[in-house]
Design brief:
Spore Coat Polysaccharide Biosynthesis Protein SpsA, Chain A, 2 domains, 44% helix, 9-stranded mixed beta sheet
Length: 317
């Protein structure tokens, strides 16, 4: 591919890290160029783009080649059915100081990498995230993703709440990840929760997280089919079991922690039933959650209220 621009960092930054932007994709030749363009349009230009094609049958390869930029590297591999494998391939192929993930249907704001570069220069951290605006298929803003307070982020706090880091908002330190052999879990029972698991293991390995309290990306809402939701909740329960019994060390009361996490998962399931107008199923999930951990519904309610208030304040400020 032809060289069109240099990769020197922009002036005014305390450091000039090289970012490896990992984009897994499958049959999205129609929208992939816009995703890549959102990287090429960054005000901070010291990056490489690693597109990992997870078995596409459309003209993804031709589309990527047509962009004609030497910073774009394209890799094809047989389809795995999960984004974990192509993301891991991207990590292995990366040369950057930091690895930033971007799904092939999401977009970054032009200042994204510049703000992340400033954040990693000013703070000691191994994971950086930011607020991410979630939009529906019509481009309407429907929610905001992002952990509200960097100071409160810990392995314990993230495990006891839920995954508030959109994958396309996260950048991780490559040396730290390599030192601790941190990759996405490619097992079938981690499908749809492999990102949450990696963030947890980064924190469990001593990594520190920082959140930029600014919207720097757009997440496209995926259609939540019943089968996919069932699989998500099943795999989330498996993740909880692994972390409670094998990884976490902040409490010896493993059974109590397991019940609390299961109750929280039932409450999340109840919320999905409300959106589908399945009130009988919602009440059943709510009852089971109370039986598992009577205080969890109260904790969950306050957590959700704080999220909604934060989202509202961000929209109106």
């Amino acid at each position: 591919m032809n060289q069109k621009s240099n990769t020197t960092g922009i002036s005014g930054h305390k450091s000039d890290p090289l970012f490896s932007v990992v984009i897994p994709t499958y049959n999205r030749a129609d929208i992939l160029p816009e995703t890549i363009k959102s990287v090429l349009d960054q005000t901070y230009q010291k990056f490489e783009i690693i597109v990992v094609d997870n078995g596409s049958t459309d003209n993804t390869s031709d589309v990527v080649k047509s962009l004609d930029d030497f910073r774009i590297r394209y890799f094809y591999q047989p389809g795995s059915g999960s984004p974990a494998s192509p993301r891991n391939r991207g990590i292995v192929e990366s040369h950057g100081d930091w690895i930033a993930f971007l799904d092939s249907d999401d977009y970054w704001c032009p200042e994204k990498l510049a703000q992340v570069a400033d954040a990693v220069a000013e703070q000691s951290c191994e994971l950086v995230s930011h607020y991410q605006q979630v939009q529906n298929s019509k481009g309407v803003n429907i929610s905001l993703m992002g952990f509200q307070d960097s100071i409160k982020i810990s392995y314990r706090s993230l495990l006891l709440t839920e995954n508030s880091f959109a994958t396309s908002s996260v950048a991780i330190n490559r040396k730290f990840a390599n030192r601790h052999s941190l990759l996405f879990n490619e097992a079938e029972n981690y499908f749809a929760v492999e990102d949450y698991d990696l963030w947890l293991r980064i924190l469990a390995s001593g990594g520190r997280a920082s959140v930029i309290p600014v919207v720097l990306g757009i997440n496209q809402e995926s259609e939540g089919h019943l089968g996919t939701l069932d699989l998500f909740f099943c795999n989330m329960a498996h993740l909880h079991n692994d972390h409670v019994w094998r990884i976490q060390q902040f409490t010896a009361s493993k059974k109590a922690l397991e019940k609390r996490l299961l109750a929280a998962l039932m409450l999340r399931r109840a919320m999905t039933e409300i959106r589908s107008n399945n009130y009988r199923e919602m009440l059943s999930e709510l009852f089971q959650a109370v039986m598992k951990s009577p205080l969890e519904p109260i904790r969950y309610m306050f957590y959700r209220i704080s999220q909604r208030m934060e989202s509202y304040l961000r929209r109106t400020s």
